[in-house]
Amino acid sequence: xxxxxxxxxxxxxxxxxxxxxxxxxxxxxxxxxxxxxxxxxxxxxxxxxxxxxxxxxxxxxxxxxxxxxxxxxxxxxxxxxxxxxxxxxxxxxxxxxxxxxxxxxxxxxxxxxxxxxxxxxxxxxxxxxxxxxxxxxxxxxxxxxxxxxxxxxxxxxxxxxxxxxxxxxxxxxxxxxxxxxxxxxxxxxxxxxxxxxxxxxxxxxxxxxxxxxxxxxxxxxxxxxxxxxxxxxxxxxxxxxxxxxxxxxxxxxxxxxxxxxxxxxxxxxxxxxxxxxxxxxxxxxxxxxxxxxxxxxxxxxxxxxxxxxxxxxxxxxxxxxxxxxxxxxxxxxxxxxxxxxxxxxxxxxxxxxxxxxxxxxxxxxxxxxxxxxxxxxxxxxxxxxxxxxxxxxxxxxxxxxxxxxxxxxxxxxxxxxxxxxxxxxxxxxxxxxxxxxxxxxxxxxxxxxxxxxxxxxxxxxxxxxxxxxxxxxxxxxxxxxxxxxxxxxxxxxxxxxxxxxxxxxxxxxxxxxxxxxxxxxxxxxxxxxxxxxxxx
Length: 536
Description:
Blueprint lengths: L5 E5 L24 H16 L11 E6 L16 H7 L9 H6 L5 H14 L1 H12 L4 E5 L10 H21 L21 H7 E2 L5 E3 L3 E3 L36 H16 L10 H10 L3 H24 L14 H18 L2 H30 L4 H28 L3 H15 L10 E4 L6 E4 L13 E4 L9 H6 L6 E5 L17 E6 L2 E4 L6
Parallel strand pairs: 1-2, 2-3, 3-4, 6-7, 7-9
Antiparallel strand pairs: 1-10, 5-6, 8-9, 10-11, 11-12
């Protein structure tokens, strides 16, 4: 008989190197600061399942689904210590023996490098790993770790094994300090917890789906990166590079999309200047913030970081020598997965048609803003010479150019804040409702992450094969700061959002008696609260 669960869904934590245990300083690329609130959220729900009066939860185990980007391997840029540690990862003993690329941008995507990176992340986030291990140790509980575009390297079996070993180690560390009977502890000790987490136990309790998670009649889950071109992988299920004559050991590395290369070779350095940069959504808001508050940094980006990025991209392309005949999406024998790929490709093609329009608007807004600044400087200079009418003309032109630049940036916001995941959910709903693929049928909930925009939206009824129940699109948001003006009207910058799903609420044969409204929650002040959502 299949195990019954209640479910918790979260996504987009983006853990990187965290706090240095030697000096207590936080790495400038770190985005996740919610280790303790995350532990509190898990403890709250574990206690709920142990409470006899909580009828919907009592003695029902939890399945925690972290829907991609739990880690941000791209932002782990430190290097192993010279000597034995470095030799164990790269086969060399000094940093000088590494490639210039590795010295400048950190380790790459090979399996030994990711094993080291996930170990480094665990050192910087001990409470987070203890909370995960403690949660998994609860009777019946399970953990599902989905890949995202920032942690696609979880594909490697050795990385999965290392993660289980780190959970094993974290549980041992928690158990050594746990005090029986201390109900106020962050992670309380319970009598029926195991004395240790064995790798055999963790093999059963911790899983790594290759592409999506499907629960018949209930939900379809995937991260969402495959729906937009900048972050889509040619083969998300097996993201390794294709070997060639010029690169025979390519299969030892991951094929990163353009968005990941941009983060590695450009945006990590931007975050060393402004650590909050990639938390401003959409990214055009950061460009606008630069123009208003730090226009001088544009020269650093234009004359130093951008050429550095272009040089690195040329070296990557030269090394790969990509074959022209390779299809944009790898073939698969699974007909359902092939149908999902077709939906993803359609989404990427639709977005690509507006890419040049977006680039022209963004570039035009930057040029106009720089011209406006130059005109203001000119006006000040002319006024100093005692000539006023050219200054008035320069100021008027500066205002016009500045206003036009602002309008272009706002139009870019509209292009970047597209509904591609919602549209993708509609298409997948039609696919599942059709029942044309054995083993797959209609579900109620379509759950995504990736774009950090927590929301719940009712899908419109399909034209045909309409199911008797309603269908919902849910995005679980992120646990990193999101500096968006529209989001600030609804909730704090740090959203801490998650979806709680209780299948028992939707199992009545009379659909009118089912409570199918998705429970999108926000962790605030040591308790879950409803996320405020407004109609369009």
